[in-house]
Amino acid sequence: MKRVQAHDSNIGITIGRTREKMQQWGITVSYLAAQLGVSRQYAWQIVHQRTFLSAHKAAEVEGTVDGIISERKHLQSFGERLRAARIASGLTLKQVAGCIGYSWVGVERWEKNICRPKPGVLWHLYSLYGIQEGAEPDPLPIRTPPYRRTGTDGLGFTPSGERSIHPGTRLRAAGAE
Fold it and tell me: Does residue 168 have a pLDDT over 50?
């Protein structure tokens, strides 16, 4: 697929600058599309210059990206900040997983806030992404309470443990009687 020739070279420069900002700040095309109120496919075509744009629309897209950056809207949770750091470093899920010895699905689960990486793994991610320890993305409190096994019918352990919870296991929050 070839890029559509812009009517005005300033439009191409504006969109190129916008794409660089998105890469630098880890803003995904999906997030941009949601903010613009358009489909992901159309947002992708805009960002990759596969469709004609007016100068007004190009400026609107750049303004939206600038607004996202200034308000840090796309960095609300720990997983979103982790994903933004990965995208900003130019790595794919599979590349990160290969470097740290986990599956790409595991890395994706961290980025979707399904679970959190262990502290040692988090240190490796920080060094892989070029983040100094203690800098963004800073850990947020885990939203789910710690669980412990209450029955003997399952094989599950805590969410932070090595094994997943077996469907038959009865769980209750730690400290609850």
Answer: no
